[in-house]
Amino acid sequence: MVAGFYGGWVDDVTMRGMDILLSLPALVLAIAITSVLGPSLTNVMLAIGIVYTPTFARIARGPTLAVVRLPYIEAARAAGASNLAIVLRHVVPNISAPILVQTTVSLSTAILTEAALSFLGLGTQPPTASWGLMLSAARQYMLIDPWVAVLPGCAIAVTVLGFNLLGDGLRDLLDPQMRTL
Question: What is the pLDDT of residues 116-130, one digit of tens each?
Fold first, then answer.
């Protein structure tokens, strides 16, 4: 949002940094971050936050660029409103819908990333519960009792599907162009 609001060199530097992060595969970058920092829940949350930041930066920047050019922003500046007041009163409410939709969609991929990192031993550590840890522990029992692996896998699948459907529903609800069709 800062990049879109101020533009110029701030926009260029910020978005080129986001492009660099976006050019790396998300899971590979998350594995690299947790490998360097060590396996823990805090480091997994940090890695997931870093990996998905570029997506949110791009989604926030686009609508911000559009909103900043609207006449009421210029009127607020002419009335003497500070940049912080303009951002909080005018920009944030107008860009919150796409960010909210992206949040629900990104939750599903974040769950998959956490499960993958925990499965590989780089994420959540025992005794903390994690579907990835459950799948990792169930590998040795696959031939004897496959349900030990099927149930956490189904839980992951249902949760990811639920967040994706929630994101689709929010997009349909919050997109004014979709409502008119």
Answer: 999 999 988 888 889
Identify the CATH number of the domain in which residue 95 sits: 1.10.3720.10
Sequence-distant (6+) residues with CB within 8 A of 25 are: none
- pLDDT < 50: residue spans in the chain: none
Sequential DSSP letters for 36-101: HH-SSHHHHHHHHHHHHHHHHHHHHHHHHHHHHTSHHHHHHHHTT--HHHHIIIIIHHHHHHHHHH
pLDDT at 178: 60
- The Cβ of residue 152 has, within 10 Å, a number of other Cβ atoms equal to 22
Structural domain range at position 106: 2-180
pTM of the full predicted structure? 0.83
CA–centroid distance for 162 within its chain: 16
Q: Structural domain tally of the chain? A: 1
pLDDT at 37: 93
